[in-house]
Every structure is written in structure tokens, then in C-alpha cells.
Write the C-alpha cells for this entry.
Amino acid sequence: EVQLVESGGGLVKPGGSLRLSCAASGFTFSNYTMNWVRQAPGKGLEWLSSMSSRSSFIYYADSVRGRFTISRDNAKNSLYLQMNSLRPDDTAVYFCARDRVGYGDLDYWGQGTLVTVSS
Amino acid sequence: DIQMTQFPSSLSASVGDRVTITCRASQGVRSWLAWYQQKPEKAPKSLIFAASNFQSGVPSRFSGSGSGTEFTLTISNLQPEDFATYYCQQYNTYPRTFGQGTKVEVK
């Protein structure tokens, strides 16, 4: 069974940093492009970043480029999101999600981890 | 960036109804369009990919169509478990973009 479990969320002050993790199981993690998507309270979904299976290709949304860094450790079946210079409008639930092989839509999602940026 | 616009933003329907949600892209995305279902406090779930292909396990009352800039998600014979918010997403180009969502509510 495919499982994605995010962790690392919490309360952080504006300007602070946080590192999110996503632990994957039930599939060969090293074969898949992985993504981060977020959802602010009461709002819609916002794609943030994608990283290809061997870390060759990385993409970011304009809203986080230069502040957030996606990374992965295929030996640990884990995806990460380093978030720096956090702002109140970064408050959201952060989901990791797997690309469908050969297509690029998101076929499996984690349950999400809440990040709150507030003083 | 490609803008995705869904309409309506919300609708009220009854069990047994046929519901259609439209998603329009500001530029052509070929058939690289997905639909997701999200229930409150839950992660989104994949419903449809490549405009008209079912995610495994999705009931056949869900169907998707379209290509280019205009897409539809149809739910025939709406069931109680279908009351949720639905999002479209294009994955033709980066940044991948979502529609703003359509909330299907009980009439």
C-alpha cells in the first residue's frame, strides 16, 4: 500500500525556518517524481515544487522560489522541504504527493502537516 | 503561467442528480488535466487523469472529458459520499496550476 506521511509542521515566527519531511513507503520511491502542494486555511490547492526521481529536475512556484528548497534522499525514501524566511501567508497545510508515472498528475497524497507562521 | 478557472464555484444538488463541473485553461494543455476530490480535513484524492482516465477504484459514475482549454467532470447519479470539493489541475507545463475548486453541497 502506498503511504506518504508528512511531519515537521508547527508554529514558527515570521522570518523563521522549518523543515518538512515526507516518509514514503509501499512503492519504489527512487522511481518517482515527488511534489509539495499546500492549502491555506479555507483556500484552494497551490502547487509549490517538484523534484524528479534522481533530483535532475527541480521546479518551484514563484511564491516560494528563493525561500523554499526541495530535496530528497532516495536511500531513506524521504522527501524534504526546507522553508526559510517564512511569512504569515505561508500558513497552510503542506502535502507531499507522488507523480503518476508517465503522466504527471498526482496519484497519491499524504495526509498533510500544518505550518502556522505567526508572532 | 496557465490560469485554471472552474465554474461554478459551488453548487447545490440532491442525491441522484447529475452534476457537471467545468474547468477552463487560459492556454491549451492538451489532455494533461486531472481532477481531484477533497473532503473536509482530508487530503485530496485522485479521480481522473489525462482528462478522461479513471484512477483505480473510482466509481464509474464519475467521468471526465475535454482537451485543449475546456474540460468537464460529470458525476451522474450523485451519491451521499460525493458531497465534497473538486479541483482541476493542469500538468502540461510548470508551474502546475489548480483551479479554485467547486464545492458540491447538499440541496
Notes: The first strand of chain A starts at residue 3 and ends at 7.
